[in-house]
Amino acid sequence: MTFTLTSASIGGASGCSDDTTADGQPAGQVGADGGATADGAHTGDGGTSDGWRTEGGSGSSPAAVSLGQANGYAILAKTGIATVPTSAITGNLGLSPAAATYVTGFSLTADSSNVFSTSPQVVGKVFASNYAPPSPSNLTTAIGDMLIAFTDAAGRAADVTELGAGNIGGMTLTAGVYKWGTGLLVPTNVSLAGNATDVWIFQIAQNLTVSSGTTVSLTGGALPKNVFWQISGAADIGTTAHLEGVLLSQTAITLRTGASVNGRLLAQTAVSIDGSVVVAPAP
């Protein structure tokens, strides 16, 4: 496995999924399992690390993190979801235990069933804990599954630790489990190189910060549904920055003006976006 300094191409939002079943409720899917992995520094397999380049033995890619019913949402949060219009969300929104009044900036229109709302900024449905059944119970399950997924991702054995001393700007990363005991900074473009079954899990003990104008892109057929950012602090995605993958944040997720994500925003507190684009991955 090799990590090199590279300039990644600018990635754009792609792929759409309404992720709903016939009764209007989100459908959960389980992610794919993987192929080749990154073994490397600090794993005891003879790998070395100089902060920019890591080499090690080969092995199998980690299994994807199952999101359960949380996989039915582009954005899922517990305390609030806010937008500065106009954002564009492809996929469902879910909020629980907070009520629909804490979904702000979306100009919601309640469906006649009162099971969900719609928004001109959302290609999908908006669900909240105070809507009619089965929304409350479905959301309780989805929130529970989000917490299980966070714990699962956090508990995976690391292949590479402390890469770049918490700064991975300019790197190309192959599949594997990466762990930092600090925050993670992405100040310049990063590429995740692999195939459609490869899986990346990033374990971040503090905050994730993606600098303005920076892109995290996928190459070689890699898919955003197989990239998991497990963040024990908050996630801050800078102005016009682009990120691929599922964000599992123990606190808040913020997308600055014009930022975009191909993936899911799953926060244990609140999600805030500003003229942003979020596209849920295809199953």
Protein traits:
single chain; 283 residues; mainly beta; seven-stranded parallel beta sheet; 33% strand; globular; disordered N terminus
Describe the protein.
A hairpin with a 4-residue loop joins strand 1 and strand 2. The chain is built from one helix and 26 strands. Mean pLDDT is 85; it is low at 1-24 and 27-59. Helix content is 7%, strand content 33%. The chain is globular, with a radius of gyration of 18 Å. The protein has one helix at 135-154; strands at residues 48-49, 54-55, 75-77, 80-84, 88-90, 93-95, 103-104, 109-110, 117-118, 122-123, 126-128, 160-161, 172-173, 176-180, 184-186, 190-193, 200-204, 208-210, 216-219, 227-231, 235-237, 242-249, 253-255, 260-267, 270-274, 277-279. The two termini are 28 Å apart. Strands 3, 5, 6, 10, 11, 12, 14, 17, 20, 22, 24 and 26 form a twelve-stranded parallel β-sheet that branches. The protein has one domain. It is mainly beta and 283 residues long.
